[in-house]
Amino acid sequence: QVQLVESGGGLVQPGGSLRLSCAASGSIFSINFMGWYRQAPGKQRELVATSTGSGTTYYGDSVKGRFTIAIDNAKHTGYLRMDNLNVEDTAVYYCNANIVTGRSAQNYWGQGTQVTVSS
Q: How far, in Å, CA of 28 to CA of 75, rounded?
């Protein structure tokens, strides 16, 4: 059974930084692809950033130049480094990963971690 567990959220002042982690556990061979999404109250879930296992990345326009996504397949963990945060970044952040196990590749979601940017 594969699980994704996110951590690293919290309260930060505008202009501050956080690093979110998304750790995969279980019988994992590799992470093919990971995406970070966020959902603010009253808004639809938004794609923030994606990365392939080989390091090809994509960033949404609202976070480009401020956020950095990475996958460490040796640790079965993905990261989202968030710099120069502003109040509009406040949301629950979710990771989604396509993970290869011994039999197949499937998509999994984490439980979400709250990020609050406030002075």
A: 10
Q: Given the structure tokens 């971690």, which residue do they identify?
A: 113
**Which CB contacts under 8 angstroms, 24+ apart, belong to 61-67?**
62/88, 63/89
Strand partners for 22: 6, 78
List, for residues 38-69, the tens digit of each pLDDT value.
Answer: 999 999 999 999 999 999 999 999 999 999 99
Instruction: Give strand pairing partners of 70.
Output: 79
Q: How far is CA 58 from CA 20, 61, 69, 77, 116, in A?
A: 17, 10, 9, 18, 23
Cβ(81)–Cβ(17) under 8 Å? yes
Which has the closest alpha carbon to 79: 3, 10, 21? 21
Question: Tell me, what amino acid is at 117?
Answer: V
